[in-house]
Design a protein that fits this description.
The protein is mainly α and 116 residues long. It has four helices and no strands. It is globular.
């Protein structure tokens, strides 16, 4: 059972990364990704499952709040903030630096999990 939770977490992490790249690429090339219903729903579902599986693993494996877990939480918050700023409908101009910051934060989060 524990291994399936880990697999779910890993799959959701890479799905989240892939969806960020697809939506970010579409937005950077001025394509309307919001017209694709799946691209509006799936990232929220994937990120929710990613966060929930991480919380369950935190308690199930009894990690505690070690420094690498705190770093992942901070990077995850950065990913959420930068993604929200980049994908905001309200912004009048495309600000690609928020996409690259969100991408870097998510990659760093994945790498910390992989190498720890």
């Amino acid at each position: 059972m524990d291994i399936y939770l880990v697999y779910l977490h890993i799959i959701c992490a890479f799905l989240s990364l892939g969806l960020l790249i697809v939506r970010g690429g579409m937005q950077l090339t001025q394509k309307n990704w919001r017209a694709v219903k799946l691209l509006k729903i799936l990232p929220h579902l994937t990120d929710t499952l990613l966060i929930l599986s991480g919380i369950v693993m935190l308690f199930q494996f009894n990690f505690g709040l070690e420094s690498w877990i705190m770093a992942k939480i901070v990077l995850l918050c950065g990913y959420i903030i930068f993604s929200a700023k980049f994908f905001s409908k309200k912004q009048s101009q495309n600000r690609p630096h928020f996409f690259f910051l969100a991408f870097a934060a998510l990659i760093a989060t994945i790498l910390i999990g992989y190498f720890h």
